[in-house]
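Final report, Chapter 2: Outcomes

The project's central promise was a pipeline that accepts a single protein chain and returns its three-dimensional structure in a standardized token representation, suitable for archiving and comparison. That pipeline is now operational. To close this chapter, we reproduce one record exactly as it appears in the project archive, with the input sequence first and the structure output second.
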Amino acid sequence: MEDLVLNWDLGTGGLLLLAAASIAFLLILIMAFKIHAFLALMITSLLTAVAAGIPFNQLMAAIAFGFNPTLGSVMLLVALGAMLGRMIETSGGARVLTDKLIEWFGEQRAAMAVGVASLLMGFPIFFDAGLVVMLPIIYAVSRRLGGSLLTVAFPAALAFSSMHIFVPPHPGPVSASAILGADVGLVLLLGLVVALPVWYVVGVLFSKWVARRYDVAVPSILGGPSDDENEMESNPAFGKIIFLLVLPLVLILMNTGLNMFASTQEDPDAFKAEPVIALLRTLGETPIALLITVIVSMWLLGWGMGKAGTLIEKVADSALGPIASVVLVTGAGGMFGGVLRVTGIGDAIAESLNSIGMPVIVAAFLIAQIVRIAQGSATVALTTAASLMAGVVVDGGFNPVEVAAIVLATAAGSVGFSHVNDSGFWLVSKFFGMDVKTTLKTWTVAQGLMAIVGFIISFAIYLVGGLFG
């Protein structure tokens, strides 16, 4: 919405006050008046847009700015992932995989095993897509172990989050690397050096504390099988379930590898346009990879096992109803964050901080962190901070390790303290069956710890890199 002209200029202070008031108003609607999150987010988004001075004739465009892209991307991933999860769940595949994990690792290490599997899957798969695919496994292992869902869910979710925010080929670190002139390969290696300890400290150690403190039951988003759907149970072979989990991983990794290889060619666009390459890249796009996997699951767990087509259709259809609320609330979270973005609050805060004159790596982290808290989007926070610091970094004479460390510190800032203006906050809240208050006390704090631990490790890399520069 580059052509948006506000009716009045609130200034940085006014925009900060408006953002704080909007978040407080939203929390009051949800927590005190018990208004459904979707309605509360929509009401707050509209009032915030009006208060910010967005003209009435552009009000719906401002609302759609964050809602439409969030809903579009989330709807495909969640719907396809829920269908895949439903097929695995009703066939008995989740139980088969759970039994095997516990047989191999023991009950004490089962949650860790799910977390490690999520780390591996999280290399090429985005946070939301990976979480949806792993959801039936998380639920099944949690039911088997008993106790709080967070014992299993947090190590898995934070594994996907750690890989998504710190490690190329995910878009955030790749974009920041391009903007700041960092070597993507070096950022990948050092990103693992940051992501793995961050996951262990927050995803394993902190998650154990959270799970002891908050007893969260397994939600019924995927539902329980109906009498008809019990006919789907076939106790599929362990290898089939592993294949279904690995298939989207391989397809998406193929897309990622081809894109990275294209960047080494003299004419990347021409390479990508070659028919065979274009086809393979399309098969590896996340929604297409999930669609292929859903169809394959219907064959391996349904048609190929002699199950009736009407039964498979009923199982697939039953996956969509329960996730409608998840999709709409997540889209509305994107709407609220989008309204805050079009008011210009992120740019105003970033420019103010950039003028203070603190060390580059600290400034990059703080700009990304505050912009993230103010407007919700980690990607916007990361690219905003990187863009503002680009000139200083390019002219600063930093060596490749130092530049990579600045990228990772900026990424750390962009992940911190996810809350009600972040669509990912609502995805976690709904998938894990937590109310807003509990999600703030658990997920928001965990994301803040990820930012702090990530920055400490990135800063240590920066200092070590300076010694050998």
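Archive annotation: The CA atoms of residues 350 and 367 lie 5 Å apart.
This record, like all others produced under the grant, will remain available to the consortium after the project formally closes.
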